[in-house]
Amino acid sequence: MIVTEPQPDQRSESHKRPVVTLSNVSKVFSSGTVALSTMSMTVEPGEFVSLLGPSGCGKSTALRIIAGLGGVSSGSVDWPSSRINAKGLPEGDIGFVFQEPTLLPWQTVFGNVYLPLRLQGVSKAAATSTVLETLDTVGLKDFADAYPRQLSGGMKMRVSIARALVTNPKLLLMDEPFAALDEITRQKLNDDVLRLWRETGITVIFVTHSVFEAAYLSNRIVVMKARPGRVHADFPITTSLERDAHYRTSEEYRQ
Ligand code: ADP
Ligand code: MG
């Protein structure tokens, strides 16, 4: 009798690999500015990590490197659970939300959210239901035909979030997304992001200046220090959100 070994489930195995790992990353700009020096961190699937630190400590630079948008001067960055293209960069697994919504003013809300799929060669007909569902998750289904100039700052930010999510990324990067918004809008968006995180299982790295926001949202805080930029402290958050964090990282959740 031949007894076959149980094969490892490829999908759940890849699910357990880190989403991104920075190993001793340094970044020196051509101006000579050392933005990052020997920065190391690993983000596991399902984490909600806040990246906190003073202006100029390299948060945006680190986020761009994590997104594959900026090269490193030394050290390495890996995306162990992503498909890697010929340039050594992750393919389509990362959504990015910038502080400025950067929407195309001549495109409707639908057109702006469709854009990443269009760039992937998906036809409008094939993309329509995905775009509308994504708009629904950020509460903007009724605004598909509106233009950015007709929207409030908070609504524009929701469109940016929908645009980042429409490709169904594993990792969502947000660079001080709500810093320019009023407190009430910001709180609503915080709750929406938390809901998305809980419902979708997405991994989030959220850059903020606000200790309060970081504590409210995350299950882990990475504090950076300036000159040169590097990790100063890295700790889990133990608040009422701990329960969610535990749930998100439990074996049960991963299956
Ligand atoms: P943070 O997002 O924490 O405010 P940044 O990552 O934007 O910090 O910047 C880190 C440092 O690198 C700063 O000193 C900044 O001036 C510098 N820097 C950022 N981008 C560039 C660039 N494209 N060219 C030269 N210097 C840069
Ligand atoms: Mg920044």
Automatic annotation (TrEMBL):
Keywords: ATP-binding, Nucleotide-binding, Transport. InterPro entries: AAA+_ATPase, ABC_transporter-like_ATP-bd, ABC_transporter-like_CS, ABC_transporter_ATP-bind, P-loop_NTPase. The keyword Transport applies. Residues 20-253 form the ABC transporter domain. It holds the Pfam family ABC_tran. One of its GO terms (molecular function) is ATP hydrolysis activity. Belongs to the ABC transporter superfamily. This is Nitrate/sulfonate/bicarbonate ABC transporter ATP-binding protein. It comes from Allorhizobium taibaishanense.
